[in-house]
Amino acid sequence: MDRESIIARAKEHFSKLIEEQFERIEMMKKQENFIDYDKLDTLVIGIVGGDGIGPYITAQAQRILEFLLQDKAKQKNIEFKIIDGLTIENRVKHNKAIPDDVLEQLKQCHVILKGPTTTPRAGDPWPNIESANVAMRKELDLFANVRPVKIPQEGINWTFFRENTEGAYALGSKGIHVNEDLAIDFTVTTYEGSYRIIKAAFDYARKTGVNKVTVVTKANVVKTTDGKFLDIAREVAMEYPEVEWDDWYIDIMTAKLLDPKRRNQFKVVVLPNLYGDILTDEAAELQGGVGTAGSANIGKRYAMFEAIHGSAPRMVEEGRAQYADPSSIIRAAGMLLEHVGYTVEAKKLDMALDICGTYEKKLIITGRDTGATSAQFADYIMETLTDGNLEKRWLSYTNSQTGN
Ligand code: IPM
Ligand code: MG
């Protein structure tokens, strides 16, 4: 192909992307308020097993949810909807990140608990389809990826608000292979998309009384898109005079999370998609490993809660899936409860997880038959939940952490 035709083809591709983003912006402009779960007659909770160890650990989280919601189910219809088709095999068969019928079923839910899904990359035996996670965030417009990280002994209580539908991810699978020598990807910052995530972070800082927000970008270098994100942060901050805020560049922020003198000063952190992806892994690792964190993907109509680790196909191949650690997906189930307004149950579950997973540790998960199974761990959690001394046990855990 001659140079002119190559450029013409790339331009056409680029103009389609702009059209798509304009449509997205129109959709965002039309969006109403957040759904009110109290007003629903029936709450539909989708359970999506995903790949690898996903179905094993998700089933345990579902047992715990059913257990905790027994009484609630007397006041409101709570329907669990098992959605099976979000497996790599089925996605490959339909050559889609989320097959149409699966998406249809997801849309019948209000909230979704999702196990890990395999993300193919070039060189894998699968076609290089888009990540199911990323697709779901976009399809259901789950724009706020909320990831809490706590290190009580250091007084660390971080809540990350990672933008979840744009940035380097928005068009991550739609870059242009201009020719053999040149590949171009895009990063997208929209006014509407940035405004709503930054506002969510400031609202949270206000609601929780933390009143401190840190905005992270690389606006000194990525001037157009990150520059816009930071400008919008300045604008939003004006609406919250009582919330103190500062801005950091991602490189030094990554370093400062490792600085014990500094890091507990960060509270609520809001940042574009890719920086949020990276920084939240670092933060979770500091808490005790990526497997210990849960992740909420929140939009105005739908919300999805997931474990932040991978699908560990090797554990399944080696026949060890039943020994997988369900802590992260159970944490995510707790975030789901909190999100729909069952805050007492959510708090109890969090306490039970702290007690069973990090404090008393009467059962240890090793990932193989030297340790407990996921089901045994879930039983241990449920026993702990029914114990009248739950709170006492948890207080002795927190005291042990803070040295009181
Ligand atoms: C995460 C994961 C995903 C992401 C992957 C699985 C696509 O790393 O949830 O942080 O990059 O967002
Ligand atoms: Mg990640």
Can you offer a commentary on this structure?
The chain starts with a helix and ends with a helix. The longest helix has 28 residues, at 3-30. The protein is built from 15 helices and 12 strands. The protein is an alpha/beta fold and 404 residues long. Helix content is 46%, strand content 17%. α2 (54-69) packs across α12 (327-339), α2 (54-69) packs parallel to α14 (374-386) and α13 crosses α14. The chain has 2 domains: 31-142 and 299-350, Isopropylmalate Dehydrogenase (3-Layer(aba) Sandwich), CATH 3.40.718; 149-290, Isopropylmalate Dehydrogenase (3-Layer(aba) Sandwich). The strands form 2 sheets. The protein has a 10-stranded mixed β-sheet with strand order 2-1-3-12-11-4-5-10-8-9, with helices on both faces. The chain has a two-stranded antiparallel sheet with strand order 6-7. Bound molecules: 3-isopropylmalic acid (IPM) and magnesium ion. Magnesium ion (MG) is lined by residues 277, 281.
